[in-house]
Specification:
Blueprint (H helix, E strand, L loop, with lengths): L6 E9 L5 E7 L4 E8 L4 E8 L5 E9 L5 E7 L4 E7 L5 E8 L14 E5 L5 E7 L4 E7 L4 E7 L4 E9 L6 E7 L4 E7 L3 E8 L4 E9 L5 E7 L4 E6 L9 E2 L7
Antiparallel strand pairs: 1-2, 2-3, 3-4, 5-6, 6-7, 7-8, 9-10, 10-11, 11-12, 13-14, 14-15, 15-16, 17-18, 18-19, 19-20
Length: 255
């Protein structure tokens, strides 16, 4: 896809309506956010610069596609210390929006971790969950038509790293997984016309880093994640809603 440069960090992938992969990632050589897709007509990968600044932008990417295969990418602007959203407009131009400020670029303290996850509901409204490294909080931002309305979703310690999200397209229910660094736990948050639940999923050791979440055909969540205490890959499956009562499966892979 890309050669002769340091590319591919913070990659995120989505499958389009034709079954082809699309990706967002960071170009560390140029310090840019890149979007790539497979061109069926040209039979090759096409890359597009989604954002660039006089500095570094494009870390911690998260990609989703709408029903028309238009991309929405949340990512970190390292230079300006803010979480941003890039999306393709109907005219095929990139629109870049600030989601939330996570640091002060003039205070001499560089924010290095800014995990984010983007989702779109069935009204094509984007929502972004992200970790604020300055406050140590999990934040959630909703697009209101003119900008993002941001709330602190979880403030109980240092929480929100490795955040991931899925939105049920039929019901707009939002499911989040993330890491509670203070307690070393995997946590889960659930929204249905309001935040109804924030709970621990796994508390056995230091667990929950590198988590990923999706839903099955019944709309129930499943979470894969890393158990740092045992060096294992683990999986948790929700049994019901609104409280999933997660069942923890034996490690999928052991070290």
């Amino acid at each position: 896809m890309a050669h002769n440069r340091n590319v591919g960090q913070y990659v995120s992938m989505a499958i389009d309506s034709a079954g082809y992969p699309r990706m967002s990632y960071y170009d560390a050589t140029l310090g840019e956010l890149i979007y790539a897709y497979w061109s069926v007509g040209a039979s090759k990968w096409v890359t597009d610069t989604a954002d660039y600044v006089d500095g570094f932008v494009g870390m911690y990417t998260s990609l989703v596609l709408d029903a028309a295969d238009r991309p929405y990418i949340s990512y970190y602007d390292y230079t300006n210390e803010r979480v941003k959203l890039a999306l393709k407009s109907i005219s095929n131009a990139w629109v870049k929006l600030t989601v939330g400020q996570v640091g002060d670029p003039d205070d001499g303290i560089q924010v290095t971790e800014a995990y984010s996850a983007v989702g779109i509901d069935n009204t094509l409204t984007p929502h972004v969950a992200y970790y604020n490294d300055t406050t140590g909080n999990l934040m959630f931002a909703d697009w209101n038509g003119a900008g993002f309305t941001t709330t602190a979703l979880d403030i109980a310690g240092i929480v929100g790293k490795y955040v991931n999200m899925v939105i049920n397209p039929a019901t707009n229910e939002r499911h989040l997984c993330y890491f509670d660094q203070t307690n070393g736990n995997l946590k889960y948050a659930y929204w249905n016309a309001g935040w109804l639940l924030i709970e621990n999923v796994d508390t056995l050791g230091v667990v929950g880093m590198f988590c990923d979440i999706d839903i099955d055909g019944a709309g129930l969540p499943g979470i894969s994640y890393y158990d740092a205490s045992m060096g294992d890959l683990k999986y948790a499956y929700g049994l019901a809603l609104p409280d999933p009562l997660f069942k923890l499966f034996a490690p999928l892979l052991r070290k």
